[in-house]
């Protein structure tokens, strides 16, 4: 019996193979950060307003700790295969645990959710671009933005997507700095805003914690990224630095917004609305925030689509016998999926009616889904 127990760990552990041509740790950090940091980050000052000065930072740190712990468990899970082969996706984990039914259930839930969120971000891009240039309709802006992004959707690996993600990280930094400036300016202004130490009741505490946990979501990107890393054994360290950056960004935007507007943040859907309400004509902070959010949205969409694109590649590979055809067929499959997400975005009822599909309402839905 003792010998069987000692043999079990090696039986269920796949080797972590080093890939010199794989994704570097730095690009891995960029991918995780841009998957977690989306337009939903703009609602974080509201989460701080619900939690107050004491509860909000505690909930933010708790969300960070729980997410890092759960992500490391997922990393271990990918190597706990009885066949001693690293699992490349959550579908493989589902199949190893529950057979074909588990594989299908995991694929439908995971990729169905990612597909819908991609469509939602396309709607947000169309709305944001329409607000900057209202001469074109929202639907036309969606088509234009998707057409510009389509070649980037063909990027086959997280190593290449990481370059785009790095631009998004830079834009996120600009957003955080701009919100800090706007919050400090508002706090020093003549208007008085109430600040509280405690949460807005039990409901406010729950809303704050839910918002923080949703904002840290990055699990869908983990299997593909781990499979492509130069050294998968470094993933816990990559995750640690990623979540540290995410926590700093979330804290900067959330607490700067709350410091500036206090409880009045709950009157706005997003921090950009609060900034715009206090901005004068031609205010540079307002323009910088709007443009930076567009860059963040572009990067976030590409990183978010990456697991969906890799799933499309795997599905097509099952039907392909001649590997020389992959370079033409796989990008076509990715294009079909990307354009299908655009089709769903264009079919959302009432999208061209601002009062029924405002960017603020859609962003709140994105934060809920994410």
From TrEMBL:
Q: How does it sit in the membrane?
A: Multi-pass membrane protein
Q: Which GO terms describe its cellular component?
A: vacuolar membrane
Q: Which GO terms describe its molecular function?
A: L-amino acid transmembrane transporter activity
Do the record's keywords include Transmembrane helix? yes
Where on the tree of life does the source sit, at the highest rank?
Eukaryota
Annotated keywords: Amino-acid transport, Membrane, Transmembrane, Transmembrane helix, Transport
Name of this chain's protein? Amino acid transporter transmembrane domain-containing protein
């Amino acid at each position: 019996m003792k010998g069987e127990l000692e043999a079990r760990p090696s039986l269920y552990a796949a080797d972590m193979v080093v890939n010199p041509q794989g994704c570097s740790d730095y690009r891995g950090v960029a991918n995780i950060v841009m998957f977690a940091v989306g337009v939903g980050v703009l609602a974080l000052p509201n989460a701080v307003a619900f939690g107050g000065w004491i509860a909000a930072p505690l909930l933010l740190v708790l969300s960070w700790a729980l997410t890092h712990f759960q992500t490391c468990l997922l990393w271990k899970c990918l190597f706990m295969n009885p066949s001693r082969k690293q699992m490349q996706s959550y579908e493989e984990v589902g199949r190893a645990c529950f057979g074909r039914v588990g594989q299908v259930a995991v694929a439908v839930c995971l990729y169905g959710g990612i597909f819908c969120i991609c469509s939602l971000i396309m709607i947000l891009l169309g709305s944001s671009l329409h607000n900057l240039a209202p001469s074109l309709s929202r639907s036309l802006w969606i088509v234009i933005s998707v057409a510009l992004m389509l070649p980037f959707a063909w990027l086959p690996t997280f190593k290449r997507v990481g370059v785009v993600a790095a631009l998004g990280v830079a834009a996120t930094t600009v957003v955080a700095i701009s919100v800090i400036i706007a919050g400090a300016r508002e706090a020093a202004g003549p208007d008085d805003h109430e600040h509280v130490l405690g949460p807005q009741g039990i409901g406010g505490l729950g809303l704050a914690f839910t918002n923080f946990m949703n904002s840290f979501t990055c699990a869908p990107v983990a299997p593909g990224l781990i499979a492509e890393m130069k050294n998968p054994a470094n993933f816990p360290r990559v995750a640690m630095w990623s979540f540290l950056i995410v926590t700093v960004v979330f804290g900067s935007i959330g607490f700067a917004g709350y410091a500036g507007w206090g409880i009045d943040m709950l009157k706005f859907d997003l921090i950009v609305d609060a900034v715009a309400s206090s901005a004068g004509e031609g205010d540079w902070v307002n323009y910088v925030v709007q443009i930076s959010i567009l860059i963040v949205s572009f990067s976030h969409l590409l990183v978010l689509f990456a697991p969906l694109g890799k799933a499309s590649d795997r599905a097509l590979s099952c039907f392909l016998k001649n590997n020389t055809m992959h370079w033409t067929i796989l990008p076509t499959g990715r294009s079909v999926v990307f354009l299908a997400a655009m089709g769903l975005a264009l079919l959302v009822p009432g999208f061209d009616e601002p009062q029924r599909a405002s960017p603020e309402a859609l962003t709140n839905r994105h934060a809920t889904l994410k």
